[in-house]
Amino acid sequence: MISPHLLLVLAYLLLDHLSVALASPRLALLALGTLVAMLLLAPLRARRAWAWLLLAACLVGLLAPPVQHWAPFVLMLPPTVVNLALAALFGHTLLAGREPLVARMVRLLHANDAVQDEAVWGYARNVTACWTALFVFNATVTFALALVATPVGLLRMAGIEPPFAMPAVWWSYFSNFGCYLLVGVLFLVEFMVRQRRFPWQPYANLFDFLRRAAAIGPALNAEMAAERAAAARARESRP
Known about the structure:
This protein is mainly alpha-helical. About 75% of the residues lie in helices and about 0% in strands. The chain has 12 helices and 2 strands, in the order H-H-H-H-H-H-H-H-E-H-E-H-H-H. It has a two-stranded parallel ribbon with strand order 1-2. Helix 1 (about 5-20) packs across helix 10 (about 170-195), helix 7 packs across helix 8 and helix 8 runs antiparallel to helix 10 (about 170-195).
């Protein structure tokens, strides 16, 4: 069964693309409303009153003329922000004294079983660096295309004529589809390389790996949350 969050993500990507391809302000508003619902989905499903009130306020706010004017420009920012956030998520674990994100996943996937091949850890660091580089690349390209997009774009929003014309639909094709295609390609290529280099992995195939990776998600999130809390306490204790 497809999760509600995935359905909202797919609806957002489609509405965002159509709003650009058809130059439709109404579809841009629908895409923006879908984005708000997607961000509030967890508290909405938990029946938090504040989330429902905030959603209602945002939906009413979408009817305001200024929001309708700025919606197409606002929708050009999320792809860059999301890719930068993912780059930071992977990249900050490459700093000295930290365990690379992919290495953490390897450790959790193997649970209490020791990893015999020490080359795994160097490989995991390199894979973490590859994911970081891909997300930085995606963020750079999406932002660059958003800057020069026409007839709507970030430079034109600021009253600056872009140095060359780039159809806004090109931005949409890359931001809403191309980014995810590159992620899928890297994921599949890395998985095949890993299977050849380290055939003794605890999972049998790609689907088994995805199932196991999903299962360790809560533990991985808990580890990283604890790390962030410890870092925050350390900053507060500094004179």
